[in-house]
Amino acid sequence: MPKKRVDDLQSVSAETALEAEKILGNRLAKLGLKQTDQRRKILQVFLQTRDHLSIDELHQQVKKLDPKIGFTTVYRTLKLFSQCGIASEVELHDGISRYEPQLNRRSHHHLVCTECGESVEFFSPEIEAVEQRIGKQFRYSTTRHSFQIFGLCTNCSKKRTSAPQVRR
Amino acid sequence: MPKKRVDDLQSVSAETALEAEKILGNRLAKLGLKQTDQRRKILQVFLQTRDHLSIDELHQQVKKLDPKIGFTTVYRTLKLFSQCGIASEVELHDGISRYEPQLNRRSHHHLVCTECGESVEFFSPEIEAVEQRIGKQFRYSTTRHSFQIFGLCTNCSKKRTSAPQVRR
DNA sequence: ATTGCTGCAAACGATTTGCATGAGG
DNA sequence: CCTCATGCAAATCGTTTGCAGCAAT
Lengths: 168, 168
Prior knowledge:
Helix content of chain A is 49%, strand content 18%. Chain A has helices spanning 9-30, 37-48, 55-65, 71-84, 125-138, 154-162, and strands at 53-54, 87-90, 98-101, 109-113, 119-122, 141-152. By secondary structure, chain A is α+β, with helices and mostly antiparallel strands. In chain A, helix 2 (37-48) crosses helix 3 (55-65). Chain A has two domains: 1-105, Orthogonal Bundle (Arc Repressor Mutant, subunit A); 106-168, 2-Layer Sandwich (Dna Ligase, domain 1), CATH 3.30.1490. Chain A has a three-stranded antiparallel beta sheet with strand order 1-3-2. A three-stranded mixed beta sheet of chain A has the order 5-4-6. The radius of gyration of chain A is 19 Å and the shape is globular. The interface between A and B is medium-sized, with 33 and 33 residues. Strand 6 (141-152) of chain A pairs antiparallel with strand 6 of chain B, so a sheet runs across the interface. Chain A binds a DNA duplex (25 and 25 nucleotides) through helix 2 and helix 4.
């Protein structure tokens, strides 16, 4: 039997998906909520996404799997996933709610290009420390933080210097 | 003649206001835009605010000075101020655009209570360093960052432990 | 059976826009 | 004068809600 390859994304995804479904089931049960077909399918699609999808984009994907599933359900479900710790909202300040999978995910932050919208993730352990320190200092019981850096990616910087400036 | 007191908020405000008006004039001229009566008045009111006012709240204040000034104008003007570096948007994730004066303001961040909305400002020099470092690392030319910590303030924490949990 | 879930359409609230009028350079 | 700014109302857009029928526990 071949040894499991950790870089085999397919199998890792499948495994995570099963695990997530179980976790979802548990948390739903605890809240007296129900594990429905729609929720399972949305979860499945959601976990395959690496990007920070908007509800609308996610709904598009979900419809490919099951065209019956409505927009509102996706909305409500992603909010639910957030509460269950399966999703977390990504705040790119573009006026749209975006989510990313949260389960088994190392804490990270986003560097966002304000021109083309491209974003990359980065890690910065000191941020966690700041949350702890400031929380203590002001006697807040902190639950989360939001940190993102904005700027121009290499490509857009180039365009700026050569072409006349574009106003948004 | 009495020595100028740096803790005299009134005089400091007046000074900043004049300075800001000049700066605004310069930047507007540079863009071929006009310095109007409305913009001057909105600026004046805006600089007196220490809180993170919503456009609506700001409009209320502005109307006291000049009831003719419309909501839309305040909206457009605050956006303009942001571009001119006079205001900066405060992101408290409550679905409302909030602004605070930016001029001569030490870089700071916000600790926000998710229950009552109260927020306090804090300073954290290491955040600036992170912006620099990550920018270099990914070859982004960074322009700003957004960092806020969320949690429960002391009061709301107490209420939570005594009263049954409230859902939002 | 009971209670929660879904999907549609309609409601909502913050923000933006079109346009005729007014003011600044 | 020409261009930009204003103020109003209407449009837009993301999100939320009411409700009748459906499905999970």
